[in-house]
Amino acid sequence: MWQYLIVWVITTVLSSLLAPKPKTTTPQPGDVDAPVAATDSPIPVLFGTRTIKQPNCVWFGDVRTTPIKTKGGGKK
Q1: Looking at the domain assignment, is residue 8 inside a domain?
Q2: pTM of the entire structure?
Q3: Does residue 74 sit within a domain?
Q4: CA atoms within 13 A on the CB side of 22
């Protein structure tokens, strides 16, 4: 039984040491494909299925938050 525990600890430590480390890079301002919010940019008209890299988003809904005023989780 102890042999399994020792093998598990060794393999866990080895897997964490040998795992590839993720690259941490910060995106540059030109690299981000965010929507453009400019009123003078043209609005593209597409036919068919296409992907727009930087769409012109001049208005995006009415974004509001409303607090939840109910009590929850209690037993009756």
Answers
A1: no
A2: 0.32
A3: no
A4: 3
